[in-house]
Amino acid sequence: MSRRQIIVIAVVLLAACALPFVVSNYRTFQFTLALVYAIALLGLNMLTGYNGQISLGHGAFYAIGAYTAAILMDKYGVPYWATIPVAAAVCLVAGFLFGLPALRLEGLYLALATFALAVSLPALLKYHHLEHWTGGVQGIVILKPDPPFDLPINADQWLYFFTLAVTLLMFVLAWNILRGRMGRAMVAIRDQHVAAEAMGVHTAMVKSMTFGVSAMYTGVAGALGAIAIQFVAPDSFNIFVSIVFLVGIVIGGIASISGAIYGALFIQFVPNIADAISKAAPWAIFGIFLLGFVYLSPMGVAGAVRMAVARLTRKAQNQAAKP
Amino acid sequence: MKLKYASIAALLAAALASPTALAQKTIKIGNINPYSGPASAYGSIGKSISAYWKMVNDQGGVNGRKVELISYDDGYSPPKTVEMARRLVEQDQVLLVFQSLGTPPNSAIHKYMNAKKVPQLFVATGATKWNDPKHYPWTMGWQPNYQTEGRIYAEHILKNNPKAKIGILYQNDDYGKDYLKGFRDGLGAKASSMIVKEVSYEVADPTVDSQMVQLQASGADTFFNITTPKFAAQAIRKAYDSGWKPTHYLNNVSVSIASVLKPAGLEKSIGLISTAYLKDPNDPQWKNDPAVKEWQAFVDKYLPGANLPPAFTSYGYAVSQTLHQVLKQCGNDLSRANIIKQAANLKNFRPELLLPGIRINTSPTDFAPIESEQLARFDGEKWERFGPIIGK
Fold first, then answer.
1. Where are the beta strands (DSSP E) in A4-155?
2. Where in the sequence is the domain holding B354, given as residue range(s)?
3. What is the C-alpha to C-alpha distance for residues A112 and A130, in angstroms, rounded to an integer?
4. Which of B36, B71, B125, B170 to mutate to test the interface with A (most CBs of A within 10 A)?
5. Theoretical Cys-Cys bridge with B145: which of B8, B65, B128, B234, CB 3.0 to 4.6 Å?
6. Domain containing A74 — which CATH number?
7. Residue ranges making up the domain that contains A196
């Protein structure tokens, strides 16, 4: 990392820590949700952006993570923080197992298979033999965690910091994975899978692992989301969740770590803006926003930011070079 | 310039001196409706409600105060409902949340609204759990709940055919089970001997044909049909085509002629028994009814060209009238505590779009506003009401 990057990250982190003391509890809650989405988008971006596998079913892993957390808290009295690693493990395994047969499917066929997963899951959650755990259509109501150690902050602020800490951990982990051997293998498979194989990359293993890790990220996000919302129900996880995730990574920037944050802010706040503009056709307004972003920054917000920085740097260098 | 500062200072001083007086010049009401998403058809209710309060403001408001209705879209997604409820309560600081729609979305904010002690009034769902003043003293339903309706059919069967052998088909979720419980409670001790067969289906099932065959084989002569529109149409057709032809009770959820009875076949629907509590504006018998005319004038003036389903606009009109009455009763004490107190103090109130004889009564221990309905029989063209008003 360059020195400038470190400075930027430090400033962003400081701002993120100051945020809940500046804005209202309601806004804090919204930013908590944005962080949750950022984790989910990062997971999907690993799979779709870096590895080139399209998934229309990540809403399903989000739901599995959420239900794992909710059931553990509601039925077994597990503390909220302990449900996160369990949700991660469950989704890692679920994703890896789903990734194995999915290996045979390329591009659009994989998209369809994952789509099937996402559409069928809400119905499964209502299935009456599972009702004892899932609560059926009624869903599960869970309690909001209180701040520990008598910290002088309220529950919303605590939840924000807790989510922020998990988000940081997940981002650092992703940064390490994607910069390393595994990340290079993922990109190689995306760009030239024959060449990658020839160079000794275990394509099948890498692809399944990517699927698993991606699902794990989304599951962690689901668990955090359930804790923040304090309620899970099958209607919370319809097919639109998966589609919105895909929208988020494209808007934020494909194959970009920081893009997950931009995408999350987009999917959290733009629907509210659209609703404020028109009650008659909120989705039409949302569509206009989408078109605007896609046309104006075809590389996603992250790409636009990168280009702007590059241009500014060049200008500064040119000016410095002048006699 | 100086003058401007002076006036701002004066305003500030006034605001600081009497914050409540200023805040109470308007009454802020929140609403959450699915304008987008899978249940967006219900968005018509939200639009009707907004139009209603516009009309009230044009007529001078309530007790001289304007009403500001803030309506947000939750797309029928519970996480979004939580976000919107928090926005209404914490950001917009509404006095109450009115007519939030759907059982899952309302379940998601049930605890929150009660923890914050903000009235969650007249929610748009028929689940029975909204009538629980002991545990949730800030939440109240409006429409007759499913258990009440189930009891009405049970009473009718006990009176007309005490030896009936009853078969039941129900959707396997809280809605179906609510109906079933009300029905069983209504039959009382005779429930176990009279009900000869109970079968359920899942929303994901393609058809209910096999369930219908089981019911017919059980020898039942009376059929209680607890299904949502698609399955209701299948069950009605199958009951007729298979030659079973039992006395057929259909839940109020699926009484739509256009979306249930027509697909099932109007001639196959003759004799169906169900319930009603609102005047159907399409029904010719109400053509000259003053309440329906008043509603029609409202639609023409405040929803021109919107072409919303009459069933939704009349519902939105009647439920808004109920809140209107609560606000009138509140007088000048617009505290949240007084609002819920007055909502639980409706005595013989009648939005005139309710069927003649149905009245709204609530009390601190009774949070179920409409508790009576009238039976109706389908005559091949329309629902013909018969018998007295049943219920409280």
1. 140-141
2. 2-144+289-372
3. 26
4. B36
5. B128
6. 1.10.3470
7. 3-321
